């Protein structure tokens, strides 16, 4: 594994309908770091993630993932090293069975059948969903869907995991399992979330986005203690840090 | 409950039945598809005034029901629900064709009545065979069977994708309809004025969803080919199933077994 | 309305299967050549969408009744005719499998009636001609409604012809035709209204989706020639097959003429013909097209010469037949019950 540094320089993105979504984003994310991306709805979190996965190409500025600048030619390499977990598991799990879904990426990489099978098993074991292997995705619970979604990208052995709202719609137990799982990963993780408690648990670093700009970038604890910053970016201190009498 | 919720539950019920594990479920899906088609063609091939000779065909669905552990009720329900069109077309036969066709004891039976009952029998047989196929075979396995039978790949993939998203979309439609009927409680169905926007909005959401799925596929190296890894070997049992039933169907088609049985029983009189 | 397995003869069913299979593989080739990757998930999800929307009942103004959507025209307008045809084929397949709507033997007929006519006739010849290059609300409204109505009328006509050719229903051709076309005029109007409303909504919200296909894009442009050529070839081949099968029947092709014109008297097969007919009855996979002259059924007493015809068909319907049938049913039920026990035993051993 090379040093998977992710680097964005003055990234701007304008939607086809002329609304500016990203407005000069620059940052550097180091290998193995877990970074939370927080901000109000419409702050540009999902757009930024889409850029990292090579779904969108910046209107201006550059993005580097590892050894490659992200552009049309390098997309296959970028997609191999970046695994993106979409917000809605129903968009991510499109195949007839869990096995097919987890095998989809490895098969596209052109791996031989035995290797595909091995990777599927390993990925499912990691997320604790090995028993679901032959189930069709529409029969899974929300937590199971999320776990399998993560397995679909783990099977490609990515260096970077990108997640959009991973805890949305999960019940408390499933959410707790997810947090523990995310904590156990050694990958570089970039997680867009409204769940600030999750951010606090998993990510040592937090980037606050507002109106397509980086408002703050620093250690998670420090950022969540900055009440004026939180208020400015329509966020709220994590419950755990609100000092309720216990 | 309205129609959509009924159908949704039914679809799920079949899906659950197909997830069972019986000797029938373990058969190769291609063999089951071929046998089902053969059965339906054979049933249809009886002359339109055939009644008695059709009965042995019931042994095939009975076999699948028994060994595949399928409740008869769900089949009967579907048979009854799909009956109206066939009834509508067939009900005229007894009126249009009143010439005496045969005698049972001293009762004269008209040709139209016989062909009408024959239509109902064929209908029951072919509907139950079709439903038994999906009750004992998962959609995913049917996809495998279709590609083995050389159905173009793009159709197989589409059917699999479609079946996958039917669940998501029906739930979405149900939510929308429920929200609509809460605000328009005295209406049967969706009113004229809101057709366009209700279905249109659902359609826009569907198009957006297709876009997101496409992105999710791209992120995992999609290059225009959907690859599915499957191996399902044909075993001797599968071949035996196909051969035995084929022989049986042909036999039943050629020899009027019940007639023969009845004669034996009644000692050759009649 | 779906054709049903019970009303169709194997000859008509398989002929329509062949025609439909030809159209499907032609469309699949076309789509494969011209498709962009994006369409693969789009086709699947749109199929699911139409499937789900078909379950919504739309109330028809001022009638108190309700109808629902077939969807082929919406698909053709949004995806282009080839993709739309494939999508309709998938939808009808799933409906045939899970809801027994139609059935597997009749699937070819149903895909043809509900897919071919709207996608390859009504869409290119009506919708596209009417809408043309200057897309306006009025043109969309007129084009979509007209194409939906005509597409369904053609489909209903297909049902009538297929039912009639199968010879299982006794309904006289013209009566059935008039009933079906008028019922489907009402259904088609609903279809047209819903289609128009939906397409206009999309046109208002995202005009580019509607504009993308009629002009420029290859998938929207449809050349009818290859399709009609395929149809012609397939029709000739199956026509040949059909007449070959029919020639086993003494009256051969005349039966259809008689039925259409209703003029000629049917002559009953006698003597060696009767024996042959009997033999053919036993051997042919496809049923004989025995049918009754409707004039006679209407009241005239059966003429004497008819007796041998009925004797030739061994109906087996007699007291013995009834007894035997009951016995067979009991046996079938017994086998089912027995196997259920076998299944349970098997389970016990398996675990």
From TrEMBL, chain A:
Residue ranges of every copy of the ABC transporter domain listed in the record: 6-236
Pfam families: ABC_tran
Entries under InterPro entries matching the protein: AAA+_ATPase, ABC_transporter-like_ATP-bd, ABC_transporter-like_CS, ABC_transpr_CbiO/EcfA_su, ECF_ABC_transporter_ATP-bd, P-loop_NTPase
KW Coiled coil (keyword) present: no
Claim: 4Fe-4S is one of the keywords in the record: no
Compartment list: Cell membrane
Keywords: ATP-binding, Cell membrane, Hydrolase, Membrane, Nucleotide-binding, Translocase, Transport
GO molecular function, one term: ATPase-coupled transmembrane transporter activity
SMART domains the record matches: AAA
GO cellular component: ATP-binding cassette (ABC) transporter complex
The protein's name in its UniProt record: Cobalt import ATP-binding protein CbiO
TrEMBL record, chain B:
Assigned GO CC terms: ATP-binding cassette (ABC) transporter complex
Chain ranges passing through the membrane: 30-47, 53-72, 79-96, 102-134, 154-170, 239-261
UniProt keyword Transmembrane helix, yes or no: yes
Location in or out of the cell: Cell membrane
N-terminal signal peptide: none
Primary localisation category: membrane
Any GO BP annotation: cobalt ion transport
Entry annotated with the keyword Cell membrane: yes
Pfam families: CbiQ (PF02361)
UniProt keyword annotations, A-Z: Cell membrane, Membrane, Transmembrane, Transmembrane helix
Membrane-topology annotation of the record: Multi-pass membrane protein
Protein name as it appears in the record: Energy-coupling factor transporter transmembrane protein EcfT
Taxonomic source organism: bioreactor metagenome
Gene behind this protein: ecfT_7
TrEMBL record, chain C:
Residue intervals passing through the bilayer: 7-28, 40-60, 72-98, 104-127, 139-161, 173-203, 224-246, 317-339
Keyword Transmembrane: yes
A GO CC term attached to the entry: plasma membrane
Membrane-related topology note: Multi-pass membrane protein
Keyword set, alphabetical order: Cell membrane, Membrane, Transmembrane, Transmembrane helix, Transport
Subcellular location: Cell membrane
Ranges for domain PDGLE: 227-340
Major localization class: membrane
Gene3D superfamilies, per database record: 1.10.1760.20
Gene Ontology terms describing biological process: transition metal ion transport
Protein name, per record: Cobalt transport protein CbiM
Originating species: bioreactor metagenome
Organism classification: unclassified sequences, metagenomes, ecological metagenomes
Gene: cbiM_5
């Amino acid at each position: 594994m090379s040093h998977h540094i992710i680097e964005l320089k003055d990234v701007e993105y304008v939607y086809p309908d002329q609304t500016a979504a990203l407005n000069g984003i620059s940052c550097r994310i180091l290998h193995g770091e877990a970074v939370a991306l927080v901000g109000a709805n419409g702050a540009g979190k999902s757009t930024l993630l889409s850029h990292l996965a090579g779904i969108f190409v910046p209107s201006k500025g550059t993005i580097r993932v590892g050894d490659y600048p992200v552009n049309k030619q390098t997309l296959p390499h970028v997609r191999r090293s970046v695994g993106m977990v979409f917000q809605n598991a129903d968009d991510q799990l499109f195949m007839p069975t869990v096995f097919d879904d987890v095998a989809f990426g490895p098969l596209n990489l052109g791996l031989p059948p035995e290797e595909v099978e091995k990777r599927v098993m390993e990925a499912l074991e990691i997320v604790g969903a090995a028993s679901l292997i032959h189930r069709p995705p529409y029969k899974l619970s929300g937590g199971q869907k999320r776990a399998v979604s993560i397995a679909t990208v783990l099977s490609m052995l990515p260096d970077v995991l990108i997640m959009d709202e991973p805890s949305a719609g999960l019940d408390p137990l499933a959410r707790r399992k997810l947090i523990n799982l995310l904590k156990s990963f050694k990958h570089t993780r970039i997680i867009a979330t409204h769940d600030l408690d999750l951010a606090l648990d998993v990510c040592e670093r937090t980037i606050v986005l507002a109106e397509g700009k980086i408002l703050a970038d620093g250690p998670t604890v420090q950022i969540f203690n900055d009440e004026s910053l939180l208020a400015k970016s329509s966020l709220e201190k994590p419950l755990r840090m609100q000092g309720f009498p216990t | 409950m309205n129609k959509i919720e009924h159908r949704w539950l039914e679809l799920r019920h079949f899906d659950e039945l197909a997830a069972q594990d019986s000797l029938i479920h373990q058969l190769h899906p291609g063999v089951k598809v071929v046998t089902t088609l053969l059965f339906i063609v054979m049933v249809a091939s009886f002359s339109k005034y055939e009644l008695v000779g059709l009965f042995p065909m019931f042994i095939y669905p009975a076999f699948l029901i028994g060994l595949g552990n399928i409740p008869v009720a769900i089949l009967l329900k579907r048979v009854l629900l799909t009956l109206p069109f066939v009834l509508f077309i067939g009900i005229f036969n007894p009126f249009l064709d009143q010439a005496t066709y045969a005698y049972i004891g001293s009762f004269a039976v008209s040709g139209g009545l016989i062909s009408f009952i024959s239509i109902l029998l064929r209908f029951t047989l072919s509907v139950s065979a079709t439903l038994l196929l999906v009750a004992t075979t998962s959609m995913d396995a049917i996809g495998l069977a279709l590609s083995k039978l050389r159905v173009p790949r793009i159709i197989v993939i589409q059917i699999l994708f479609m079946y996958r998203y039917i669940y998501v979309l029906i739930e979405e439609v149900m939510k929308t309809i429920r929200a609509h009927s809460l605000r328009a409680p005295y209406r049967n169905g969706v009113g004229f004025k809101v057709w366009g926007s209700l279905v249109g909005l659902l359609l826009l959401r569907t198009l957006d969803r297709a876009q997101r799925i496409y992105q999710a596929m791209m992120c995992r190296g999609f290059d225009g080919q959907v690859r599915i890894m499957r191996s399902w070997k044909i075993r001797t049992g599968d071949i035996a199933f196909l051969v035995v039933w084929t022989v049986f169907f042909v036999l039943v088609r050629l020899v009027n077994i019940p007639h023969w049985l009845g004669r034996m029983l009644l000692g050759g009189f009649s | 309305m779906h054709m049903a397995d019970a009303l169709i003869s194997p000859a008509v069913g398989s002929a329509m299967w062949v025609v439909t299979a030809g159209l499907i593989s032609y469309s699949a080739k076309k789509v494969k050549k011209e498709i962009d990757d994006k369409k693969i998930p789009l086709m699947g999800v749109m199929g699911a969408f139409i499937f789900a929307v078909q379950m919504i009942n739309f109330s028809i103004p001022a009638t108190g009744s309700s109808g629902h959507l077939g969807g082929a025209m919406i698909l053709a307008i949004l995806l282009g005719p080839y993709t739309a045809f494939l999508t309709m084929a998938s939808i009808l397949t799933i409906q045939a499998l899970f809801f027994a709507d139609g059935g597997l033997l009749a699937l070819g007929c149903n895909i043809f009636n509900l897919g071919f006519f709207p996608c390859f006739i009504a869409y290119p010849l009506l919708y596209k001609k009417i809408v043309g290059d200057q897309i306006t609300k009025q043109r969309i409204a007129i084009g979509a409604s007209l194409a939906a109505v005509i597409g369904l009328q053609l489909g209903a006509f297909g049902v009538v012809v297929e039912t009639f050719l199968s010879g299982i229903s006794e309904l006289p051709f013209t009566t059935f035709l008039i009933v079906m076309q008028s019922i489907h005029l009402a259904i088609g109007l609903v279809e047209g209204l819903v289609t128009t409303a939906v397409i206009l909504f999309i046109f208002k919200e995202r005009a580019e989706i509607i504009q993308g296909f009629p002009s420029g894009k290859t998938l929207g442009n449809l050349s009818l020639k290859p399709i009609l050529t395929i149809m012609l070839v397939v029709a000739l081949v199956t026509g040949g097959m059909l007449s070959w099968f029919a020639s086993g029947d003494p009256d051969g092709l005349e039966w259809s003429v008689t039925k259409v014109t209703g003029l000629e008297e049917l002559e009953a097969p006698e003597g060696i013909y009767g024996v042959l007919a009997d033999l053919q009855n036993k051997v042919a996979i496809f049923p004989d097209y025995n049918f009754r002259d409707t004039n006679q059924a209407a009241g005239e007493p059966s003429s004497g010469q008819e007796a041998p015809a009925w004797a030739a068909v061994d109906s087996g319907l007699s007291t013995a037949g009834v007894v035997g049938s009951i016995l067979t049913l009991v046996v079938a039920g017994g086998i089912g019950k027995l196997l259920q026990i076998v299944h349970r035993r098997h389970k016990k051993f398996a675990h």
